[in-house]
Amino acid sequence: MNEISVSELAKKHNAGEDFILLDVREPDELAIASIPWAMAIPMGDVPVRYEELPKDKPIAVMCHGGTRSGRVTKFLNENGYPNAVNVAGGIRDWSATIDPNVPDY
Fold first, then answer.
1. What's domain 3-98's superfamily in CATH?
2. Distance between CA 12 and CA 32 in Å, rounded?
3. pLDDT tens across 47-81, in order?
4. Per DSSP, what are the bridge partners of residue 62?
5. CA angle, corner 16, sides to 18 and 55, nearest 5?
6. Which terminus of the chain has fewer CB atoms gathered within 10 Å of its CB, N or C?
7. Is 78 an active-site residue?
């Protein structure tokens, strides 16, 4: 499975690259900490909603620490989304290294 660091993710976003940040955390987690430009689909909903995602754009999958997003990335890769990558460290690392205004929980 391919992974991307939060630093690489921030560089891509700041450079205006066209990709989707898919946040697979639960709504109560999103209420605590989120990235405004992310698309949210809870992990449990991905098997029935993944076709909402475009196949022609890279997808960076994020959760709290990287475990759930790793599972979703594997699922997407196996279902016709070869450009899906896992965000290593998740929003926890984003908060610690990119944007301290995003709460850690």
1. Rhodanese-like domain (3.40.250.10)
2. 24
3. 999 999 999 999 999 999 999 999 999 999 999 99
4. 23
5. 5
6. C
7. no
Kindly name the residue from 59, 61, 62, 63 that is annotated as catalytic: 63
Q: And the tokens for 58? A: 């890279």
> What does each C-alpha distance from 69 to 16, 21, 84, 101 come to in angstroms?
23, 11, 10, 22
Which structure tokens are listed for 74?
């594997």
Question: Do 69 and 81 form a contact (C-beta atoms < 8 A)?
Answer: no
Written as six digits, the tokens of 45 are: 């909903």
- Phi, psi of 23, deg, nearest 5: -95, 120
What band does 1 get if pLDDT is binned at 50, 70 and 90?
low
Q: Among the residues of 1-105, which ranges form H helices?
A: 6-14, 27-32, 46-49, 67-78, 90-93
pLDDT in tens, 8-49: 999 999 999 999 999 999 999 999 999 999 999 999 999 999
Q: For 6, which DSSP code?
A: H
